[in-house]
Structure formats: C-alpha cells, structure tokens
Design a protein that fits this description.
The complex is a heterodimer of chains A (325) and B (580). With 325 residues, chain A is α+β, with helices and mostly antiparallel strands. Chain A is 35% helix and 10% strand. A five-stranded mixed beta sheet of chain A has the order 2-1-5-3-4. Chain B is α/β, with parallel strands linked by helices and 580 residues long. The chains are: A alpha+beta (325), B alpha/beta (580).
Chain lengths: 325, 580
C-alpha cells in the first residue's frame, strides 16, 4: 500500500485489514447488541453491496481491501475514471466505518493506486448522495431502525427462491382490466426490481391462522390498503367459517366483504404495530408517516378492541403461507 | 493413393451398403440431444440423416439461434423445448419486458411445423394471443408445458382448452400470470377425452368442480393430476375414485373438517391409488389428515411437501410409510429433528430439497442447520442431489457429508445470510466447497454460499472436472477467483455470478471459454462497459448484453449477460438492453 505510512498515523485502518475476522465479528455483535448507529455514521459503514443497496450485512470487506494482490489495470482504471467523472450514484462497493479517525483520511488520500483511497477521496461528497436514495428505496427502512437483528436485511433476489405470483401491474397487458392483478401483486413475497424495493409487512387476521404479507409501497392511501385487506382475507375468512363438513366451497357471493376497517363501523378493524411495539389504530397519521413506522398489521375484531390491554396480545405465530422454490 | 480419396471412397462404399433410409431409421432411435449432436458431426451423410430423423429439438437459450435456422436444419420437428430468460430472472434480477417472446417462434413454426405436437417452455414470455395462435394453427397439438413463464392469463388457457382437440398435456407450473378466473377449465369440450397430464396447481382461482369431475371421469388415460388449492378434501375424494390409475397427484387444500364417514371414504380413495409414485400439494396438512395418505405411499418415490409446514414428528409419521422414497422436498419447519427422521426412514433417498418457510424473517431461531444435513448424509448414502437452505453451516460438517455421500451430482447449498463464515470456527467456507469438489468427482452442478475467498474458486477450477453449472453470490476476493474457474473447469456451460468482486480482468480471462458455454451472467460485479466492449470486439460470435437500470452509473456494467449465438445481436432487445 504505497504512500501509507505504517507508523502510528494509520494504525486503525491497517488493524482492520489485519484483523479481518475480529472486525467482522465486532460488526456482527454491534448489529445484534448495540444500538443502531445514527444515520450519518450508518452512511460511513463499511459494506459490500450493489449500488443503492443500503442494508446488507457486512460481508468480508477485507477481501476487497486486499491490497497485496495485484489489481488489474482495468479495474483500477475503472475506479479512477469513475471517481473523477461523476459524483452521482457512486457505487458504494466499499465505504468506511466511523472508526477510522478523521486524521487518517488525508494520509490515505495521497495514495492513488488503491481502491480504498479512491473511495475515500469521494466518500464525503458522494455517499450522502448515494445513500439517501438507497435508504428511501430500502425495503427494510422500518425494521432497520429497530433493535437487535441477527439476520440481515433482505437483498434483492436473495435468498434465491422462485416466486411465481409476480407483480404484473407494470407488465405488457392484454388490454383487459385486471382486478386480480393487484391481489397477485401483494400476495407474494417478492422484492420487485421494477418498483424499487418493496416494503413488506406481515398481516394477520383474527380467526385466520394463516397470515399474509403486503407490500405497502404498492399503495398510496389507507383506502387502497383497506381494499387490499378485503381482497386478501375475504376468501380465507370465508374458508374458515365454512365448517359444515359438507365440503361445499364458498361461492363468491357467500364471501362477505370486509368493510369498515378504518372507521370502526365494520366487524373488523385494522390496527398496526409500530417500531416501538405499540399497537395503534390505522388512519391517524399521514400515509407516508404510517409507512415509515409500521412494522406489522393486524385485523382485529372490532368488539375486541376495547379489551386490548397496554401491550396487546401476540397471536400464535403460524408459519406463513409459502409456495416457493 | 491419396489417403483422403481412399477415405472418401471407403465412406461412400459404406454409405452404399447403408442407405440413408436405414441410417435415418437407426438414428431415429437416438433420444439424447448430446448423442445426436455427436452423431451429426461424424460426416455429412450422418449430419443429414440425423437432421431428417430428429423429431424433438431442445434449445437451451432461445437467443442462441433463430427459428428460421432451426426450421431449415430440422424439417421434421414435432416437439420443441425452449428456454428463455437467464435463470436469475426467477429472483427478479431481470427487468420486465426483457424479451424471450414465443410469438416469433410460433410464427415460423406455423409455417414450417404445422404438425407440431409439443411445446415446452421455460422462462419465456407467452401472451394470450400466442396461446390463441397456438390453439388455432396447430391441429395436432398435444402437449403444452409452461414453467416459470409470464405474460399470459387464464384467458389464453381457455383458448387452449377449447380448441386443442387432441391435447394430452397441460402443465402450468409456477408462472407469473393473471389468474382471472377458473372458467378456462370449463372450456374443455364435453367430448374431449385425451388428457393425460393436467397441472394447474399454481393457479389460484376456483374452477368449476363439476366440470373438473366430469373431465377426470371421461379422461381414462389421466396419469398426472395436480389441482390447485381451492379443491377441498372431499372434492379430492371424488376425483380420486374416478382416477385410480393416477401416477402423480397434487392435492388441494388438506385442511378441512371431515366427519368420520368422509374421512374413511377419503382413506379408501387413496387406498385405491395403487400406482401413485409422486405426491405433492397437501396445503396446510396437519397430523390429523395426513394418515389418509398412508395407504397410497407404498410405492411413493417423490414426495413434495413444499406447501405444507410440517413439524418433525408429523414428517416422521409420514415417512414411516414411504420406504421407497427417492426424492423428498420439505420446508425447514421440520427442523433438524425432521431430517433425522428422513435419515432413519429413507435409505433409498437420492434427492433432498429443504426450503425456508420464512426466508425473510428476522428471527433466526428456526430452520435447519448443519446437523440436519449431517444426519441425512449418514442415513441416506445414495444422496446425489441436494438443495439446502440453512442459516448456519460448518466446514467440518460439509466435509463429513461428502465423505458419507461421494456421489453428489448436484450440490446447492444456500447459507441464507450472505457472506456468513463457518459459525464455529469463523473461518471462510472455502474448505467446505473444497471438500465437495475434491470428493464428488461426478459433480455437475454447484451453488456456493457463505463467506468465500478466492481459495474456493481455486479448488473448483482444480478439481471440478465435470462441473457444468456454477452459481456464485457474494463470494470471492478478486479477479483471480473467477479466472480459476474459467481456466479450470473443462465442462463448464453455465456460470451465473452476482455481487462478487470480479472485474474486467476476470471477465476477459474467459475469452477462450465462452464459446463453449451456453451463457455467463454477471450482476453487481466490478465489470465495466470498457471490459464488455473489449469482449464483444474480440468475440463477435458472442452476444455481450448489458442491462442498464437506474442504479448503474455510466461506466459500470451492472448486469451483463454473455452467450454464444449464431443468430447475431437480438432484434427485439428492449431499450434497457445494450448489445455491444
């Protein structure tokens, strides 16, 4: 690593590279035990990921910091060229953690032949630009701000599981109205490339053992969400009610619509759990605020709302419906 | 005498003894595509005999060739299998409207293969118009299989049902389609009796049960029936008594309140199915109703429990009745204990797939670990295909597993947390995959995961001499890793890579390799447009396609798809696909 003195001026960075595993473990621990870093520090976190992807676990960054191996001239050229060329949408392949003291930056900046330095050069100006769009798009914007998480946030297309109920809202249509497309769109666990990253929250309904997951990014109002809840659970609810053993499946006109979710007049009411774990009635705050704090949705019997205590009761956790490969 | 002349005359002498018709007849017995390819290279005579005798064609990449070229070479095709989008499109890594539309193929086939009988498509875009076109233009059409396709709706299926008088197979698997209603099923005419395979398990709408029941009754050759979730248990019973000769069954919902009479009727119906070798569906099945199956499980070789979240004890009880099981797909709700039950009860097991029930869940206190896999390897020594989603793994466990089961041909391990090391030693998982490639000499397909350095790829390049498909994600340290693979694996055909630090040097190290491969996919790596341009310039017989989206900056090649082709650059590329 030319130009970087190996004296006490840059001990911390070298320490990182030398102690790859300890560092990695420390990061994992921090994730599981420590409080989430404040947003600006989060922006400085070392991470490996595709551009725009903010929330991934800290994969072994040191592989990329391996300055002993020869960098091919082509990839170096790429980095140099890019960094000078534009400031937008910098691919945050490597970003640096806050533990590097500020005094190190100028030292490393002298070195123009390493990836780490190039990134340092542009980090300050660019990462702020790179990250806000990412955080807006991150599909785990809400869970991310919650406490301990030993599993990482979902990445697009990972784990590699096939989901066959794709979002067809944007595909080439056949000129016919598609009332069910919406249902298909929300009934899957995909993270759709098209719509950016989805914001999926679990939704459970009283009396129905199987929950659903909804992508809140698909909706822009409480009305649409309420309509979606109706579509998603109407059939399930009717199936639960049908216990006659005659095996006659409920005809469409026997399925009652689930209405009045938002105004307290229906048989059911929509509530949600926010990031602090409190149960709240849906509909009080502006939609975008709701979307940023909601963690989980529940459809409760309106008659039971008054019975809820301070903490509310957790429903038994049932394995959610999945048909994936 | 000129040796070439003597060879020619010898050959023509042989040919005279062996008229073309006989040669064609002999070659018509060849089924395997690889054999046929080999045969066609022997001589011009054999090439011609082969092309005239070929009735089934398999095209692994629809853009590697044009339908005109296919039709010109093979005049007598009855069955076409086509694969379209890159496999990572299953995981939403390929934008919508990428292509792989079947219509241009159908247009040529209507002209050149009017007697086309079978069409099997995977990851293609199929519109309702195409389905209607198919139903209209091909009078002999018999078998339609659509796997992981998109672009059509149940309206298209209605057209197929209504018009294809000789249909024997309708197999709709896991597609992204508009399910408007189940009415399509009612479109089969009342005098239609030829169906042998019907799979609509992945559709969600109700179908007219009476129509289905009548259909099943009158199609005496029905062997494969996979219904969707809306079909209840008592409905299933009525279907089973009308189709006791089924060999493959996919049930609907297994959750229903049955009275004692219904229960025993259902049990008896299953008992009547003596030929069942494949069972799937079983949605929401619980310990309460699974026993109705037991009488039908004696000859079961494939049990697909992908759609039911069984616990370990429930699984164990079922497996006791399936001594001949060779393939098992389960959800990880069965846990390591469930896998121990597999090890105990399924000595003939060859294939195991364990899927995560809650892959995006934040709590990690469930699922399977290395001990479940280990247990299976001790009990099921014939294991050769594994797909395993887990949350933790160790190098030592994998080493033992492959020692127990050295015959793996497909080893797909997915440690769900990207870049996770051996959780006991905190070391990379290099040695695990090293053990796999060193021990399993027959390995054809490998998917790696966990924390991996270039060493993994050194091992792969050095030892995996039969490897054909390699999937890599969040792995590797430098270009050297990918280079090892490209320079080492002689039989490599498909390489798919995402989120790895491989750049232009790695990409270009495969210059000599790509024409012998079907395709290369690289996304979220370090490849740039410059590198791709160099590749495209050096290898004009490859299509080097770069997909741009909002996330990629100018110099970067965010998604790269490289494949060999005799068709030239795509003429139907959407605006976000650049062919260099």
């Amino acid at each position: 690593m030319e130009g970087v003195s190996r004296n006490g001026e840059a001990p911390q960075l070298l320490d990182f590279i030398a102690k790859e595993r300890e560092w990695l473990m420390k990061r994992l621990q921090e994730q599981s035990h420590g409080p989430p870093p404040p947003p600006e520090d989060k922006a400085l976190e070392l991470r490996l990921g595709p551009p725009g992807d903010e929330d991934r676990s800290n994969i072994d960054f040191t592989k990329n910091c391996d300055l002993q191996k020869d960098e091919s001239p082509l990839s170096l050229g790429y980095f140099n060229g890019r960094n000078q060329a534009q400031a937008q949408n910098f691919a945050p392949y490597l970003q640096f953690s806050p533990s590097i003291s500020q005094t190190q930056l100028p030292v490393l900046a002298k070195d123009s032949s390493s990836d780490t330095v190039d990134l340092q050069n542009n980090n300050d100006t660019e990462k702020k630009k790179a990250l806000p769009p990412a955080s807006a798009a991150a599909n785990t914007a809400v869970p991310d701000s919650s406490q301990k998480r030993t599993a990482p946030a979902p990445v697009v297309g990972w784990p590699p599981l096939r989901t066959f109920r794709k979002n067809l809202a944007s595909s080439d249509d056949h000129g016919k109205p598609a009332p069910k497309t919406h249902q298909n769109a929300v009934s899957s666990k995909i993270v759709s490339e098209r719509s950016g990253k989805g914001l999926f929250v679990k939704m459970n309904m009283d009396g129905v053992p199987i929950g659903r997951k909804v992508d809140l990014n698909v909706y822009d109002s409480y009305q649409k969400l309420s309509a979606a809840v109706d579509e998603l659970f109407r059939g399930l609810l009717a199936a639960q009610r049908d216990s006659s053993g005659r095996g006659i499946k409920s005809m469409p006109d026997e399925e009652k619509s689930i209405t009045g979710l938002l105004d307290g007049r229906g048989e059911y009411t929509l509530v949600y759990e926010d990031h602090e774990g409190d149960r709240m009635l849906v509909g009080d705050v502006p939609w975008h605020m709701f979307v940023s704090t909601v963690k989980r949705l529940r459809v409760l019997k309106s008659s039971e709302i008054s019975v809820l205590g301070a903490g509310g009761q957790k429903q038994d956790k049932m394995p959610s419906d999945s048909a994936m490969q | 005498m000129d040796p070439k002349k003597s060879r020619d005359s010898a050959e023509s002498a042989r040919a005279a003894q062996f008229p073309d018709e006989v040669l064609e007849r002999v070659l018509s017995l060849l089924a395997s595509h690889k054999d046929r390819s080999a045969v066609s290279l022997v001589s011009k005579t054999w090439y011609n005999a082969e092309r005239w005798s070929r009735t089934r064609v398999f095209i692994g990449n629809c853009y590697s060739v044009t339908p005109e070229i296919v039709a010109r070479r093979f005049p007598n095709i009855r069955s076409v299998t086509l694969k379209g989008k890159p496999r990572f499109s299953d995981f939403n890594l390929v934008p919508q409207n990428w292509g792989a539309d079947i219509q241009s193929w159908l247009a040529v086939f209507a002209e050149r293969y009017p007697s086309l009988e079978e069409l099997r498509l995977k990851r293609m875009t199929v519109t309702d118009e195409s389905l209607k076109f198919l139903a209209l233009k091909f009078q002999n059409f018999r078998a339609l299989s659509l796997m992981s396709c998109d672009g059509f709706s149940t309206n298209g299926l209605a057209a197929i049902a209504a018009r294809c008088r000789n249909l024997t197979e309708l197999d709709i698997q896991e597609n992204g389609i508009d399910d408007n209603s189940g009415d399509w099923l009612s479109c089969f005419p009342e005098n239609f009796v030829s169906l042998e395979v019907l799979n609509f398990a992945s559709l969600s709408s109700d179908v007219d049960f009476d129509a289905l029941e009548r259909l099943v009754s009158r199609c005496n050759s029905l062997k494969v029936l996979r219904v969707n979730r809306t079909i209840t248990l008592d409905q299933l019973q009525r279907l089973l008594v009308r189709a006791p000769r089924l060999t493959e069954l996919g049930t609907g919902s297994f959750l229903q309140d049955l009275n004692a009479h219904q229960y025993s009727e259902l049990e008896r119906a299953f008992g009547g199915c003596k030929n069942l070798h494949t069972l799937s569906g079983l949605h929401d099945a619980t310990a309460l109703y699974l026993p109705v199956l037991y009488l039908a499980c004696a000859n079961l070789t494939f049990l697909n429990l992908n759609d039911t979240a069984l616990q370990d004890e429930e699984l164990a009880k079922v497996l006791v009745h399936c001594p001949r099981l060779q393939r098992l797909w389960v959800l990880d709700t069965v846990g390591d204990e469930g896998l121990e039950a597999v090890a105990l009860n399924c000595p003939l097991l060859e294939e195991l797939r364990v899927f995560p029930a809650n892959p995006f869940d934040e709590e990690v206190n469930h699922g399977v670990s290395e001990s479940g896999f280990l247990a299976v390897s001790y009990g099921c020594r014939r294991l050769r295909y594994v797909l395993y989603f887990c949350r933790q793994m160790t190098n030592a466990a994998v080493a033992t597993i492959v020692q127990n089961c050295p015959d793996f041909t497909h080893f797909r391990l997915c440690i769900m947390n990207p870049g996770q090391p051996d959780y006991v030693t905190n070391e990379p998982m290099d040695e695990a995959f090293g053990a796999v490639v060193k021990t399993c000499t027959k390995l054809q397909r490998l998917a790696v995961s966990g924390l991996l350095t270039d060493l993994t790829f050194e091992y792969i390049g050095r030892y995996a001499k039969n490897l054909e498909t390699l999937s890599v994600a969040f792995a590797g340290s430098s270009d050297w890793g990918m280079q090892c693979v490209l320079e080492g694996c002689p039989k490599l055909r498909k390489l798919e890579i995402r989120d790895c630090p491989f750049g232009n040097a790695a990409l270009l190290s495969g210059l000599e390799k790509y024409e012998s491969m079907r395709s290369l996919w690289m996304s979220a790596c370090k490849v740039t447009m410059n590198g791709c341009e160099v590749l495209a310039r050096e290898r004009p017989r490859l299509n080097v396609e770069v997909m741009k989206d909002e996330e990629s900056s100018d110099g970067q090649a965010y998604k790269v798809y490289v494949y060999r082709t005799v068709a030239g650059p795509r003429r139907d590329a959407p605006p976000f696909v650049f062919t260099l």
